Amino acid sequence: MPAITVYTKPTCPYCLAAKALLSHKGAVFSEINVEGDSAKVLEMIERSGRRTVPQIFVGDKHVGGFDDLHALDSRGGLDVLLAATV
Predict the structure, then answer these.
(1) Which fold has domain 4-84?
(2) What backbone torsions phi and psi does residue 31 show, to the nearest 5 degrees?
(3) pTM of whole model > 0.85?
(4) pLDDT at 1
């Protein structure tokens, strides 16, 4: 069962939206707050190649940010991806 990891910052509205969408889907995820933690920021950049939050991973698969997550959900792909985590 792949773990879901979300790199976030507390004041980021897109982070809140991503966590809300995942929660609405019943997904259990780990949140990594990168605010003020340069080591976690570097980890996120190395894993995703991106500097913005949120960055969402299902196992080793990089889903992307909130827009990517929302687009995946709109295509029906999020439910399929999350079903693989149960």
Answers:
(1) Glutaredoxin (3.40.30)
(2) -110, 130
(3) yes
(4) 45
